[in-house]
Amino acid sequence: MIFFQSMLLAGYLYAHFLSSTFRLKNQLIIHLLLMAVALLFLPIAIPAEYNTPSEGWPSLWLLSLFSLAIGLPFFIVSANAPLLQDWFRSSGDTEAHDPYFLYAASNVGSITALVAYPLFIEIQFGLKTQTWLWSYGFIALLFLIFTCGIALRPNRKPLEISEQQKETNDDHTTPSLKSYSRWIILAFVPSALLLSVTNKITTDLLSTPLLWVFPLILYLLTFVIVFSRRPIIPHRFTEKLAPYCLILIIFFNVSVTHANTVLYFALGNLFCFFVLALYFHGFLAATRPHAKYLTNFYIAMSFGGVLGGIFIGLIAPIAFTDIYEYVILLVVAAFLMPTKTTTLVAIIKSRIGAKAQNYRADIIFSLCLIGLLLIGREVGTESVGSKLVSIAILTLFLLIMLEGVGRPLRLAFTVTIGLFIIPFLLGSHRDILFQERSFFGVYAVKETITDEENKNSSAQVAHIAKHGTTIHGIQVKGSLEPQSYYHQESGLGKLFEAYNTNDEKVQAIGAIGLGAGTAICYRQAGQNWTFFEIDPLVETMARDPKLFSYMQECAQETEVIIGDARLSLKNIPDASYDLLIADAFSSDAIPLHLMTKEAFDLYKKKVKDNGIIILHISNRYFDLEHVVAATAKASGLTSRMYNYTRQERDVTEHPLRYSATWVAPAQNVETLTDLIPMFFLPLNKIRAKSIPGVRAP
Predict the structure, then answer these.
(1) Whole-angstrom Cα distance, residue 425 to residue 429?
(2) Running DSSP on this structure, what letter comes out for residue 404?
(3) From the centroid of its chain, how far is CA 175?
């Protein structure tokens, strides 16, 4: 996103330079020449020297990769929107005084492409065909722009502006520094919010275009609405709704105390994000300058977008150990909310009186919110009286929050209290032993006591590693017994049990995904294990004996290869492993590029003919077992599945053993039949599940 936003800004600067320096004929010649040069960079392909990502911070590697692969073509394409709008402005057309509606049209094109790619283009065409089709489209675009330039020149007339238009546009007054600052801020906030919301959704659900495309479509849709000649959602309506969305976000965030509410959180935040982006972009469109300064306006708007991308993509992961940037953005948004009040709020304020509208009252109201929180924390919910008190406190809390609508400072205090102080009082940051952030997300290790309420002798102290909302490893203090999804009753545990029962010698084992290093404790003398881990911070966490001792006690000299597993595996000789374990999660999201047919073909090459691949596919939101089996079958592999479901007695006896689904594909059916018939079942013997577009083998 940083790359595309930066190149968009560069394209806008180039369009401004052309339109302000050269006549139309020269603009057309220069632009077409650069487009012709960009043809030398087609078809789009990843340079050979960039096949392997850098082992350190990948941001610069990604930026340089994109610059070489698609930099010039995208730079030229990005300049078209402001350049063509400026040509239209000087065309003498009856609508030329307001060419901004063309910006809405360009965003309709963007939305169409975003929808068409995952639903049609990606399904119908392979990557090579796609790149050639895009190249032909680029050539067609060159001829279309040439046609526009030729058609415009004979009809070029001086632009006549009516007296009313002159008055509306302030008689071509040059935009002030204040105007530029306003445009930058109004573009910065929704751009940064877009990336924050996208990060949350793709981290906790699934990292796939079908999910990250939704917030981007909503973001572009707001531009379509606000720059249309007749917006379908009036800005005055959005002004009234936006402050309430900020309050609604507080409840969405506070209510997400369990992993199963993440979907509810995502949908709620998407709605609120759309309203907030619509408000800021509506404000942006309402303050746009005369068409003479069109390119200046787009430069300021694009610069704000770039700053938003840099803040979320580069600064926040370094500056913060948690996703604090989302909260900071919402506080900034609160300061920019309108001071006008709706009827409901006006009624409340008329009852309170004028004295409640000064800055001293803002502080008093904020202290009242904190006081109510402290009282609510001490009130239990077991008795009927306590429940009534809790309801009364919640009602008062909500009324005071609503009273902040129309008072930006008070609303900002409310958002700060709701998103910073409430989580602290709820104890979500207690007992955290480790919390760091990398390019790939936030990792935390928390100490917990099992059966803490009863304080019985079976209570155990455990360290839990989390990424997003998902647990990535658990260790009971003083014990090396695997827990969470890797325990002895899980598919992984049963597989190693089968190896021991059949006296099967397994010498070389590869594991995609390190986590807390739990799986290494299945290692036996003489075995050679290799872990593939994309994030260096995960290895730091796993090797810290104060957090987890699995690696220290069981790993010995086990190698951890840092980098994308699929690319790193290419450098491993074929038929190297007896067993390949794939367990690479990003929160609850399984990277899709590790589940494609191409990935399974790679796994098949790296294991021996009688070797086994075993994948951990537990997921709260998607049924993946038949998808994995169908993909494995397409690669000539036969699959078996073991699904451990935790029973009620297991919760009491083994509270740290979780339900887990493991799938074991292999190219040698006899290996599966001889080794694990008593544990794993063929997928065609399991109750089929309805998954659109996938037929279970």
Answers:
(1) 9
(2) T
(3) 36
